[in-house]
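Hi P.,

Sorry for the delay on this. The queue was packed all week, but I finally got your sequence through. Input first:
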Amino acid sequence: NLKAASDAYGDSIAFAEQAVARDPANGEWQIGLANARFYAGEALRVQGDLTGAMRQYQAYRDIAQRLVDREPQNERWLLELSYGMGGVAFVHEAQGDFQSARRELESAQQIKEDLARRNPADVERRQAMAGGHIRLGMVLDKLGEVDAALKHFLADLEIRRDLVAHQPDNFALKRNYQVALNYVGGAYEDRGDIAKAAEHYRLRREVAAAYAATDPRNANWRRDLAAAETTYAGVLRMLGSLGEAEQGYGRAIAILRPIVEAAPDLAIRQRDLADAELGLGLTYFERGDLDPAAARAETVGRVLAPLLARGNDREAMRRAADGRLLSADV
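Then the structure:
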């Protein structure tokens, strides 16, 4: 209930403002107000109120900036300032203003890198720096600066790999590592370097398979593995390895079907299943097996039907259109 959440955050802001008015020099109360502003901005952004979200994010950033101006070496205030800049950048991205988003993110990244250098053993600081590289890479990619984007994705990957090497039993770090591998693979794929993309997608699949095997009941980890199988199968299909691609899509579908049946209202899982079914259909089509290709195209439609009935799921609409194109080609 986003409306109720917005109202609750509004109450939190009012309470925090009263506390700050009583003691303006209290930095903890200032940050309490800033955090209330941030969460209010999050709720508004999700509801599509970008103007309101920007107002809250900017207020958060400005409070943190005033605290940093007062105590320039306070690491907590600096980190809060970087998060405030990141929130403002979210709205710029949603508005299509990627240059402004880039400026905010570059300023935030400078802070995060400085904090990580001060505390090289601090995992939280290094993860914040890694996340900043991903955000910058995504924005630079949208600006068409693919080489600069790849550098940031590779920097993120290097950090994630090192963190896992030092904490091999930390599954949260492993999940972040496989996400980093996916970003790098995608960057190489966009550049047309399918061999390097396949190398990183293959490693992503191996990482996801390893941690998913430790807890077969964890649906999110199984979904990670299914997504990795689908992505890797896609580049194998580009490379002409249709038999291996078929096997990969088949493994993804076998993982996803029971997950979707267990939670039919989770749209993201239905989209994942549709992606795997469509990929398998395209593999059959490229191999000349038209009847199985047609059957998979029909399956894509059935999987997406509940999402299409809602009428506002653009990702489902795009996938359904791809399925109809496959049917038309067959």
